[in-house]
Amino acid sequence: MYQFIYAISPKGYKKWIDRYLQYCDFKISTIRLIGFFFLFGLGLSFSVSFILFLLNYVDTLLFFVTWLGIFVTFEIATHGILVFIADSRANFVEEILPDALQIISANLRSGLTPDKAILTSARPEFGPLEKEMKFVAKETLSGRPLEESLKEIAKKINSKILDKTITLLIEGMAKGGSLTQLLDSISEDIRQIKILRREIKSYVMMYGIFIFFAIVIGAPLLYSVSTFLVETMSRFGSSIELQQLFESQSSLPIFKSTVTDVTPDFLILYSILSISVTAIFGSLLIGLIQEGSEKAGMKFIPLLLPLSLAVFFIARIALQNSFGTLIV
Fold this sequence. Notes:
The protein has 328 residues and is mainly alpha-helical. It folds into two domains: 201 residues, no CATH class; 124 residues, no CATH class. It has 13 helices and no strands. Helix 7 runs antiparallel to helix 8, helix 10 packs antiparallel against helix 12 and helix 12 runs antiparallel to helix 13. The chain starts with a helix and ends with a helix.
């Protein structure tokens, strides 16, 4: 079954999974992971939807909608975990990369060859970079060109800074430049880039705070008030014959109106979906503003989505307890 799912999967999707498995340093095969994502997501979404159907929470139409929604949510969450792990490893490597380059430069000044300088510079505190540095050194000692070994690191760590660093090192070695000076220069440039990123992040912090309050406070409060007003009007409408009132006043243009079929339950469902969509895309926007990448905002979704929905339901309960007894 896993092989069949892998065979019918798009070629670009299979390449994406294979690439991120390398970025995350997972040893599981691409075939098994794709099959697991699809079959487990299918089974989980069907089971939850079927339980809700048996408990009469959803009807036949909503059963398929719920099944599809849970399946899509599961797939987005699982693939998002891969992206999050890969970005976490890349961010960690970018933080310690300047120190690693300076240590390699110091070892080169002491007279070591590039491969031995890289091997002796590998430290446990370097995390994923330690493993890749040892790999490069061992491959070079076994006879593989250093340039080819360095290119393999960029395939295993999803970092643009690391990729550009390796490109500069390869070009510098090809042109016969001083490798120690190049390492020191790259290390200083990376530090300056990190400082500029922190400054930019502090400048745009206010925009992120504004988006946060709009997602968590503003939108849920507005939707809770709107749904409460609709429920109140529906309650009044059930106690008086609004349609007859409108028909009796049909001779006056100001009273030309109709009674809609929109139910409070539909508006509550619409509000939940709208708040969820706002929270998801708002999280991506915060990541784009603060770190320059939409993927960086995926880590905010598990925080903002439950908070915004909690504020919505809490506000509804507060309105019903405060004004519900006055209206009934």
